[in-house]
């Protein structure tokens, strides 16, 4: 029995998306052409335009799943962190988890940066549709749990912390050696120093004070 046409279309769509994700998150996005993605997916280049409309639309779909995963993780971590009886040790745990997640998704983060740098309109759209609503929601939840904080102030602090976290997560070892002024440091030493720095920055920015265990 022949497969329905929509089922074949879904298979082709997914093959293209999987190939694009694999290539764009493991190579320099600027070096990946639609022709190469099509070849990796085993389809004609014209089918990419047929299913996705444009190169940027394909890139955005590659990032959609990553964005949803990021927002879910960060909401969970931040709401746990700002629970009424959260301790300073929990801040350190949350920041380290976020940094390690970001480091394991460097390809997606670099793709996002390349896409936003190429098209300012996409940057504005990403902030309007994804980043701003998420920051607003998380900041409001934090303020509800920690009265006396301004939603706007918390949003700005989270935005600043996120930018530093992404910079450290996407930096290669040479960049980290330069940042820390340690030209001969081993990789594990640099990663440890990076985590300590981001944790300390988070403590200072968010002003989470240590409390006694419940």
Describe the 3D structure:
With 214 residues, the protein is mostly helical. The chain has 2 domains: 1-53, Arc Repressor Mutant, subunit A (Orthogonal Bundle); 62-206, Tetracycline Repressor, domain 2, CATH 1.10.357. It has 10 helices and no strands. It is globular, with a radius of gyration of 20 Å. 22% of the residues are buried.
Summarize the structure.
The protein has ten helices and no strands. With 214 residues, the protein is mainly alpha-helical. Helix 1 (5-24) packs across helix 2 and helix 7 crosses helix 8.
Secondary-structure element pattern, one letter each: HHHHHHHHHH
Number of strands: 0
Strand content: under 5%
* Main sheet overview: none
In the CATH hierarchy, what is the architecture of the largest domain at level 2? Orthogonal Bundle
What is the CA-atom radius of gyration, in angstroms?
20 Å
Give the helix tally. Answer: 10
Domain tally: 2
CATH class of the largest domain: Mainly Alpha
SS class: mainly alpha
Considering DSSP H and I runs of 4 or more, what fraction of the residues is helical?
over 70%
CATH topology of the largest domain: Tetracycline Repressor, domain 2
């Amino acid at each position: 029995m022949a497969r329905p046409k929509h089922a074949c279309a879904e298979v082709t769509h997914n093959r293209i998306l999987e190939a694009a994700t694999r290539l764009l998150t493991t190579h320099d996005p600027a070096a990946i052409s639609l022709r190469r993605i099509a070849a990796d997916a085993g389809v004609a280049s014209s089918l990419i335009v047929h299913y996705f409309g444009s190169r940027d639309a394909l890139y955005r779909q590659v990032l959609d799943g990553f964005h949803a995963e990021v927002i879910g993780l960060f909401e969970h971590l931040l709401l746990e962190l700002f629970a009424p009886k959260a301790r300073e040790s929990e801040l350190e745990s949350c920041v380290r988890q976020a940094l390690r997640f970001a480091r394991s998704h460097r390809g997606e983060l670099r793709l996002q940066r390349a896409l936003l740098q190429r098209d300012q309109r996409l940057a504005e759209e990403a902030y309007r549709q994804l980043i701003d609503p998420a920051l607003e929601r998380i900041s409001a939840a934090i303020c509800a749990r920690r009265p006396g904080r301004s939603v706007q102030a918390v949003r700005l602090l989270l935005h600043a912390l996120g930018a530093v976290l992404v910079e450290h997560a996407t930096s290669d070892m040479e960049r980290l050696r330069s940042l820390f002024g340690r030209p001969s440091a081993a990789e594990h030493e640099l990663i440890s120093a990076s985590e300590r720095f981001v944790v300390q920055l988070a403590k200072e920015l968010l002003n989470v004070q240590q409390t006694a265990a419940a």
